Known about the structure:
The structure holds two protein chains of two kinds.
Chain A: H1 2-25, H2 32-40, H3 54-62, H4 75-86, E1 104-108, H5 118-122, E2 128-129, E3 137-138, E4 158-162
Chain B: E1 27-28, E2 35-38, E3 48-49, E4 56-57, E5 62-65, E6 74-75, E7 80-89, E8 97-105, H1 124-133, H2 146-149, E9 158-165, H3 174-197, E10 199-207, H4 211-224, E11 229-234, H5 243-251, E12 266-270, H6 271-283, E13 289-296, E14 302-307, H7 312-319, E15 327-330, E16 337-338, E17 352-356, H8 375-379, H9 386-394, H10 398-403, H11 414-418, H12 425-488, H13 491-494, H14 503-523, H15 534-555
Parallel strand pairs in B: 1-14, 9-10, 9-12, 10-11, 13-17
Antiparallel strand pairs in B: 2-8, 3-5, 4-7, 5-6, 7-8, 13-14, 15-16, 15-17
Amino acid sequence: xxxxxxxxxxxxxxxxxxxxxxxxxxxxxxxxxxxxxxxxxxxxxxxxxxxxxxxxxxxxxxxxxxxxxxxxxxxxxxxxxxxxxxxxxxxxxxxxxxxxxxxxxxxxxxxxxxxxxxxxxxxxxxxxxxxxxxxxxxxxxxxxxxxxxxxxxxxxxxxxxxxxxxxxxxxxxxxxxxxxxxx
Amino acid sequence: xxxxxxxxxxxxxxxxxxxxxxxxxxxxxxxxxxxxxxxxxxxxxxxxxxxxxxxxxxxxxxxxxxxxxxxxxxxxxxxxxxxxxxxxxxxxxxxxxxxxxxxxxxxxxxxxxxxxxxxxxxxxxxxxxxxxxxxxxxxxxxxxxxxxxxxxxxxxxxxxxxxxxxxxxxxxxxxxxxxxxxxxxxxxxxxxxxxxxxxxxxxxxxxxxxxxxxxxxxxxxxxxxxxxxxxxxxxxxxxxxxxxxxxxxxxxxxxxxxxxxxxxxxxxxxxxxxxxxxxxxxxxxxxxxxxxxxxxxxxxxxxxxxxxxxxxxxxxxxxxxxxxxxxxxxxxxxxxxxxxxxxxxxxxxxxxxxxxxxxxxxxxxxxxxxxxxxxxxxxxxxxxxxxxxxxxxxxxxxxxxxxxxxxxxxxxxxxxxxxxxxxxxxxxxxxxxxxxxxxxxxxxxxxxxxxxxxxxxxxxxxxxxxxxxxxxxxxxxxxxxxxxxxxxxxxxxxxxxxxxxxxxxxxxxxxxxxxxxxxxxxxxxxxxxxxxxxxxxxxxxxxxxxxxxxxxxxxxxxxxxxxx
Lengths: 183, 564
C-alpha cells in the first residue's frame, strides 16, 4: 500500500516537474492565433471594424470580443478565410461597419491643399509627405485606401480614386465556356 | 562528327503550315502614316519617355530610356515628328492601354547620329549597358532583356551557348527566313555573344523541317571558319523551340525546377536576337524592326521586315487579308493571343500576325468533363500533371496548383491540343497564375502596410516619451536654478521656500516663471523711437496716458470702495 502511494506520488511529482519545465522552456511569446488572424486581415488600418487598426481587431477576434464580419476592406473572401481558420460559421459582412468597395488610393488636390498637416497625422501608414504650410502629397504605392485622411481635411481636397487596371495588374478571367451545345 | 541528340518528354505534332510563307523572300513594308510605339515592350520596368509632342526625331533615336537594369530602351523606328505621348491600346489580350509615342513619319527615313561602340575594346559590362540602351531583347517571344542573359554564371564562363532556330510553332517562319537570308550576320552576332559569355561550344538547333535554313547556316559557319560552332537538325516536334526543351534535346541537360540553365553552364538565345545583337554592335543600329510572319487567312502569306510601331493591319493589307477575317492572333495557333483590335502596333514580341477567320479557326467544341485519361500528362513537355492542376485551378485552390508546380508550365498548349474533352487547360493555368500573382502583390502590400503602421505607432510612442523626458529635464533644471537663487536671496524670501518639493517649491517655480516673463516684457522696447521727432513723442506719450486711463477704467468697471 505504502509502496503504491509512494510510486504514484513519485510519478506525479516527476510529471509535474516535467510539465513545469516545459511550460517555461517552450513558452510561446504572444498569441500565435492573433498572428494568423492578422495575416488574413488586409492591413488597411482603417478602423472601420471599431478597433484602432488590424492588429487590435485580430486580438479582439482571438479573444472572442469581436465578430469575424466587421472588416469591409477584407470583404467576403476575408470573412471566408477567417471562418475557415477559426472554424466558425460564415457570416455576411456586417452592414453597420461599412460596405466592400473597390480598392482605391487617396489623391490630394495639390492646388487646394493649404498645408495644415492634419492628414499627415491621421494617416496610419505614414503615406503622406508634406510639412506645415507646404503642399502635401500621397505616396500612392504605400496608401492603403483607408479614407482616414478624408475627414480631418479642412478644405476637402482629398478624394479617393479607384485603382485602375493596368497591363501589369491585369488578370486572366476565369474561363467560362459553354458546357452543352444549345439545342 | 555525329552528335548524340536527346529527347524531351511529351510534345505534339500539329500540322506545321509553314510552306506557304517561305516561298518568297523577306519583303520590306512601306512607311505607314503613323507609328505607335509602346514604351513598355520588354519584361521589366517601364521605360521613361524622352521626347515630347512636337519633337523632331530621327531613325534610331532613343525615345524611351531604360528604367533600371531590368528594362530595355525603346527607339524611334523612323524619322518624323512626335505627335503625341499618350496611353494607347497595346497588343495584349486585355485591350488595355500603355504609354506610347505616336510618330508621324516625314518619309525621309533619316538615321540620327548613332552611338557606336568598339566591341573589341569595350568591357563586357560596357557592352551589356550598350545593348540595354540599344533595346535588344529576346525576339523568341518572351522579350526578356538580352543584356541580363549575357552574363556568364558563377564560374565566369559557359560550356554551351544554345542558339534557338527550332521555330516549332505552326505557321511561323520568321526565324526560318532570317536564317536563310541573314545567316552570315546572325553568325557574327553569335560570335559576339560567345565572346561575352566565354562559351566553349555553340550549338544551333534547327528543326529538320527547315533544310534550307540549316544549309544556309552551315554554309555560313564553313565560310566564317570559327571552330566550335555547330548547326544541328533536331526532330520536328512541338515544342522543341522551348528553351528548356531545346537545351534538353541538344545537351541532354534537364534544368530542374527553380534552377537556371546558367547553373549548368548553358544559355539559350533566339536566332533573331543574335541578328539584332550583331546589328547593334557592328552598325550601332538599335532594335527598331523585326521579321514578322503574316500567315493564316491571307492570299499571300509572307515574311516582312516590319518597323516597330507599324499598325498590324497595315502589314496584313500587303499580304491580302481575305474579307471574312475576324481576328488577328499575335504568335502562332498554339501559344498566340488574340489582339483586341486590328490596328494595334507591331512590337518587339510580334513574331507572327496570324490572321484568323471562323473557317480557319472554328470556335472550340463545347468543353466536356475531364475523364482523367492522362493524355495531357503524356503530352506535357514540362513533365507536369495538367489534369490535376486543372482540377485545382477550377476550384480556385491555388495553393494546390503551386504544389503541382504550376509555375513550371510554359503555356505551350500541348495539353489543350490533345485533350479529348476539349478543355482549354492553358486558359485555366493562365487564370491561376495571374490570380496567384495578384495575391502575392496584395500580400506584399499588406506586409508593407503592417510594417509602416507598426513603425508609426512605435514612432508616436517614442516621440511622446522623448517629449515627456524633455519636459521633466527642463522642470528639474528650473527647480535647481530656483533653489540656487533662494540660497543666495535674503532670509525673508528664503522663508517662503524652506520646504523643497512641497507647495512652496511649486509656488517659487511659478513666481520665478512670472518674474522671467515680466523681465522679458520689460526688455521689449519699440525699435523705431530713436528717429521720431519730439512732437511725435509728445503725441505718443499723450496716447499712452489715455490708453492707460482707459485700461484702468475697463479692468475695474465697479471699483470697490477705497481702491480708486
